[in-house]
User: Which sequence fits this backbone?
């Protein structure tokens, strides 16, 4: 079936409206009318082939909120008219240990990405949410709480679950002291979610002007990481730190801010490697550095349910599809608080 989408035709051309062909609805498929799609920085990387893995034509978008308009004969979890979400994955091998444990993001064969992946039904590229519709296997679709503003839900499908997953995996609980490095799309969600869990949140930032916003979002303390006195004052104070910065930086100051047995979790992926940390304090204080990748479908549903209970959404700026190139330019300047979301109904095809 033909639909309209915002398509990247090569690494140098701006995205443009063009028709694409979706696969037919399979037995377990859900066809979704896209209402809103968040703009992740990875969309820009992929559109410009900055990771050297892009296949063109390419339709970005993996923070999708929409309405079910058709279901396959075998679909039992969703019905037409229901509001649902789709995140970074649309399939996996289903058979490996990680898939069997409901941790599809670590699928041993590699999960199928929502866009620029290989569709396991057709062998063709998957298309993302910068489009009128998507078709997704029901096992990779999640329900959206009906009390949340839908545009603000879209970034939860990537940014939200990316920070939720380590918070849950490492059993953050009320009263824990949680540090968050960086107040961007990921960081602002980490502050909101950890605060709602009852943790005492400290934001580490290079930008003192972000302090006011951090307190509004739920932080109890703001530390300017370039201020050596402020960093020294929070020595050995944090149970866990979620590092959301996607640029190479010195990890040692954040390791120093951890309590003995503390953990630094990296969710931002820099273009170049971080400098190697000092090993001696890690050994003598049993500190750990971990990574964490997005989140499972189960975690995504748990996160959405939690957000529904606590009325949490992303802080967003709404735009039309034809404004996407301007949004990309503003993202490069850090000029967004905190996530762009495309209103697909307002987009002129």
Assistant:
């Amino acid at each position: 079936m033909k639909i309209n989408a915002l398509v990247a035709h090569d690494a140098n051309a701006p995205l443009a409206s063009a028709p694409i062909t979706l696969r037919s609805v399979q037995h377990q498929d859900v066809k979704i009318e896209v209402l809103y799609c968040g703009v992740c920085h990875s969309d820009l990387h992929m559109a410009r082939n900055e990771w050297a893995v892009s296949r063109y034509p390419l339709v970005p978008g993996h923070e999708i909120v929409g309405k079910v308009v058709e279901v396959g004969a075998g679909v039992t979890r969703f019905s037409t008219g229901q509001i649902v979400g789709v995140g970074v994955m649309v399939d996996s091998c289903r058979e490996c240990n990680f898939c069997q444990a409901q941790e599809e993001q670590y699928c041993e064969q590699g999960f199928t990405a929502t866009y620029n992946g290989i569709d396991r039904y057709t062998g063709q590229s998957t298309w993302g949410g910068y489009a009128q519709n998507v078709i997704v296997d029901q096992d990779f679709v999640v329900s959206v709480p009906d009390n949340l503003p839908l545009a603000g839900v879209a970034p939860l499908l990537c940014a939200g679950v990316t920070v939720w997953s380590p918070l849950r995996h490492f059993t953050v609980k009320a009263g824990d002291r949680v540090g968050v490095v960086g107040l961007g799309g990921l960081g602002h969600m980490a502050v909101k979610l950890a605060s709602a869990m009852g943790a005492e949140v400290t934001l580490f930032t290079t930008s003192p002007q972000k302090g006011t916003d951090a307190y509004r979002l739920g932080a109890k303390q703001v530390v300017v990481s370039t201020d050596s006195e402020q960093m020294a004052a929070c020595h050995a104070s944090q149970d866990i730190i979620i590092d959301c910065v996607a640029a190479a930086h010195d990890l040692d100051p954040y390791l120093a801010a951890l309590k003995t047995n503390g953990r630094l979790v990296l969710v931002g992926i820099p273009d170049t490697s971080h400098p190697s940390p000092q090993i001696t304090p890690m050994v003598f204080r049993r500190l750990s550095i971990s990574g964490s990748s997005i989140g499972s479908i189960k975690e995504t549903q748990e996160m959405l349910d939690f957000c529904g209970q606590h009325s949490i959404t992303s802080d967003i700026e709404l735009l039309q599809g034809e404004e996407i190139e301007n949004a990309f330019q503003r993202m490069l300047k850090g000029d967004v608080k905190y996530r762009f979301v495309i209103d697909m109904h307002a987009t002129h095809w």
Notes: The first helix runs from residue 41 to 47.
